[in-house]
Amino acid sequence: MDQRLRIGDADIRVTEASRRCGMTLVAQPGMAEEPDVLRGIMRHNKRNLGVYATPTEGVTINVGDAVYAEI
Asked: How far apart are CA 36 and CA 13, in angstroms?
């Protein structure tokens, strides 16, 4: 992936996609299985739900900081 994000003053390097696990396919105590959750993610985003990322410098990210994506 090797893309960049900027969150507040933090420069962030996106290293890889984070795949959604299949636990929504298995019923849990008190909850039915929900296969449509994973199907929807797969249909729109190749099963990726998020990303793994590493800050390139030691800074603090605060609630409300603006997020910018390098496209």
From this structure: 31
